[in-house]
Amino acid sequence: MAVLGSIIKGAIHLKDALTPEKNAVEAQQEVLQDLLSTAKNTAFGRHYKFEDILNAEDPAKLFAKAIPYFDYHTISEQWWSKLHDGESDITWPGRPPYFALSSGTTGKTSKRIPVTEAMIEAIRSAGIKQVSALSNFDLPADFFEKDIMMLGSSTDLTEKEDHLEGEISGISASNIPNWFRNYYKPGENIAKIDDWDERVSEIAKNAEQWDIGALSGIPSWMELMMQEVINYHKLETIHDIWPNLQVYTSGGVAFQPYEKSFNSLLRHPITVIDTYLASEGFMAYQERPETTSMRLITDNGIYFEFVPFKPEYINQDGSITQDAPSIGLKDVQLHQDYVLLISTVSGAWRYLIGDTIEFTDLDRSEIKITGRTKFFLNVVGSQLSVNKMNTAIQELEEKFNLEVPEFTLAAVRIDDEFYHSWYLGTKTDVDNDVLAQFLDKSLQTANKNYRVARSKALKGIKVTSIDPALFYDWNEKNKKKGGQVKMERVMGEEKFGEWERFIKEKQTV
């Protein structure tokens, strides 16, 4: 009998039973009050008169009126850049001990996002909430004695002036609590290896020593790691070396496009749990098995606002117009796409994180990520979201028995006519024209705006099937392998031109 596992599982159940559940709307009001109170004497807080907002009859209303929207570039240029000049007390008291580097899904230049001690504690607290939620899943007691493979970025952070820099997964892993270190794999020595291929090679060599019960990381890179382990040990599936693997915690991107290729590496199904951890904070986690939606963490250092996701509020670069209306948690509606705004204990204020979400359960504050503002393809009125793209790809996989773990597309002009040009990462003999016709029909069925655009200026879809490995080569060329790196689903004209030249060069080598 798994005695330790039974004790841990029982302790989790007891903690949940003894911890009263906070009202989410009231919790958000308290978070906003705490944020404003803590930062009122910073340069940002004095500039935007946080003291007046705190004394207002409706602080949330005045907060939304007094402070503009910020994306990374505007808040960095106007405020966070002062931190790099050696100043303190800019958007949060003191100076941050960490900066999270993130190139996101666009651009080669890394963003440098401050990470405060308060945010480290908030991420740790959110992680404990997520572990506690495992009691809602039907997992045996011995699961709680197994190792957890966290495949993130290197924990060998770069020391710069008075702070450390690295990707958020590396920063988080370097701050795991002592009690968790015995369960954490691949362990500190391997986790510090900066080169992705070398780190995965070491994981493969040491895989037999570990009894992995759970995996955590971005799906695309997790697949590559599992495939390397399988190839190194000449196995059929990952369960042949880790028979007790029962849980995969996904995060950062939608899991659905990877589901088929991911499952092909398994002997039997495992429990997939979604999380929402970004460089700016830990926003949500899947709390129960009846849904794939995630519960917003409303009492943990992040204040949320929501802008209705409508074309008239979205600028061409993916930012939002300053006249776009925002609402708080108490006013959101079901199944309406919203642009997510956050204010945090790291000194982000009314910050556009770049994701769009929808609420699937108001009482539980449960959401799904539906896409990215930058990946909203609205050329000639098609209003095509990443969520609709993912659904169409899943239907394509089922129809033609394909695996399409990666794809990207752009609106292109050919002889003065617009097309959507898709590149699908898949190995198939199905003709590209057949795939294009199916995608086109699927999108017209699911999206009225796309159907209207197809009857007017949008002439159709073009599909090019390529080796999925080329997507990883592209990421390596433009950013870095592994860690938090994600593939951009929609490209602008200039980037798409670079992409097509890259693919042609790789295919002619």
Automatic annotation (TrEMBL):
Residues 390-494 form the GH3 C-terminal domain. GO terms for molecular function: acid-amino acid ligase activity. GO terms for cellular component: cytoplasm. Residues 297-362 form the GH3 middle domain. InterPro entries: GH3 (IPR004993), GH3_C (IPR055378), GH3_M (IPR055377). Signal peptide: none annotated. It holds the Pfam family GH3. PANTHER family: GH3 DOMAIN-CONTAINING PROTEIN (PTHR31901). This is GH3 auxin-responsive promoter.
